[in-house]
């Protein structure tokens, strides 16, 4: 054991070790939660949708796969964020380059993939269109993501062990989730009319009578020495938009909850193993989800109760068309319950597949990276000399309408380009002037905006694509939201090349990870594009966007099959000027309540007794959460008193950790009181199985007054009962000290910091990320 451990330690620097296991795998998880107050959330494009606390912390989950034979490696990181933006990825790359002194990890062999939650802080893109709702960049959002992702890789790297890796798949339906409602168990086609425009033979071939991809692909990682499971990654397509834009606590939404619940099942509940610390890491990665909604009951008019799941998605109110009234619903009674149901079903399906998966994934790793300018890409459409071209990025009028998962409230615009407001469009055109050539190239899109007229960096043109092979599984990271059919076509095309080229067998798998390796809107098929629902209106490079991207990925697959290592092309240069457009209000000062102190309790907990399912709440005078993000730590914590002798009060005892911000059962919410005071509420819903006893809630924050200082607050003691445990004594008999201060490390990991910038990243942007 010791010997193999020592060998393992060496392998990271000296490529010498050998082991009988077919793989060396490392898993790591790190907190990447950004600013938890007064920062716009990314996804719904709604500048009123701002953070006001944390429901569940956001995590980066990293997996490193090393081939012991060749010592080659690839890494995959799934992140609870809207999308892996170019700014985030380049920041991570720079950080890893410094920490690992240029070795091991770069964009070439590392995929950074977003989960696509719409409940994380915005401002982590350098393209102006994606900074619009947040009125610019938010450094804290970007830094939290870059740091958390790099830390997850760092932890995974130092956790590499001999492992067996298996792969499998299954449908997320009643075969993996007992009694799940069919056919929409955990995902639903939100643009069925658009999907129906694809050729019938093709629809049948891929999906039979169905209109959505219900398949989940999964990797299972098991420690080869102990036989213990180490981790799991699965890919399944569904928007993590169960929560809507009224919900203002930070959350990983349904996929975040699924990861949390799976990890808890494997690691134990929070009072046994603090959430977000491993050792088992479960990532619910995004699959092909462009047109896939979590709102399983379909779209209904909130005013009339009529169905609006049709090609128009509009409701009528006083003779006016209102797309903002047509909303996706279900399956829960409210959005919160829906999120939990969607997460649970994905978790249950993953567990079923995980349990039965025994097929080794095979051996060997490989990777190909390619950057391409999508604004002028030629592709031979039918392979017979019919050359078609992509266009300058433009957004159609149906983009402005939004979707039933999140209408924009701009009722002037609708799906399929109608209704469309002539005046607004005229106004938009004055700003961005699409040319006759744009209109011809983008036809039939009714162009609303040509973003790059304003400045070349409003919308991306150069995009990164990645293919990574882990044995018989190939992950294609795509910088956009492929729709169901677009994804099916592309996966088939990639797989054909890889199978023909002998890279994988017919039984191998190609998965497509949306919103990875960058972000550039949606990608519909040519047929869907003709009908210009939201997804088509947001397919920005014209009707051949999908053909172009597929062509790029097919060429990359050919390179992989030929063993070629081509120059990937120049990555986008993110200029300092575009990134430094930051516009959020600074926190100037925090004030305690008049006549009081930071940490004073305003409304204390109810002393109880409380039973599982009850919610305990405490409100305190705190400070602005943006003064310190408290990553890998917590604003709120729950503690249980552990007596030294249950029948002797005077024997004392100690507080043991029970739950924190990361837990589903806790909520930390913030609101401003008056001009500069903050009220924070920490709540805890008593979970099943928690030991009975005496509990308390604790707050920890940072206040700005002169400098920034740590502040604390302790709520009262309350009683939790459960069926087994009897309370040995009453609270007034107890003399209980406040709980310990929990660790809030400024620099959680001790890492080397050589002052080197990768040569290919030097330039105008240096130092700005
Ligand atoms: C799943 O649902 C289908 C359609 O309702 C039904 O025919 C089938 O028997 C169900 N299977 C299981 C395992 O429940
Ligand atoms: C998976 O297997 C574990 C251990 O054998 C078991 O506890 C669990 O219930 C199984 N889960 C499913 C969904 O089959
Ligand atoms: C190429 O093939 C397509 C589809 O078969 C056909 O419509 C088109 O006319 C062909 N073009 C040429 C130049 O042969
Ligand atoms: C706990 O306290 C009781 C009552 O004072 C005493 O009888 C017992 O020995 C104590 N147990 C231990 C393990 O000290
Ligand atoms: C978070 O804190 C734990 C315990 O203090 C530590 O083991 C872990 O390495 C930290 N994670 C990061 C990413 O710093």
Automatic annotation (TrEMBL):
Domain Neutral/alkaline non-lysosomal ceramidase N-terminal per the UniProt entry, residue ranges: 23-550
Entry superkingdom: Eukaryota
Documented EC number(s): 3.5.1.23
Protein name per Swiss-Prot or TrEMBL: Neutral ceramidase
Catalytic activity: an N-acylsphing-4-enine + H2O = sphing-4-enine + a fatty acid
InterPro entries documented for this protein: Ceramidase_alk, NCDase_C_sf, NEUT/ALK_ceramidase_C, NEUT/ALK_ceramidase_N
Source species: Durusdinium trenchii
Family from the record: Belongs to the neutral ceramidase family.
Position of the signal peptide: 1-17
Keywords per UniProt: Hydrolase, Lipid metabolism, Signal, Sphingolipid metabolism
Region (Disordered): 731-769
Lineage: Eukaryota, Sar, Alveolata, Dinophyceae, Suessiales
UniProt domain Neutral/alkaline non-lysosomal ceramidase C-terminal: residue ranges: 555-720
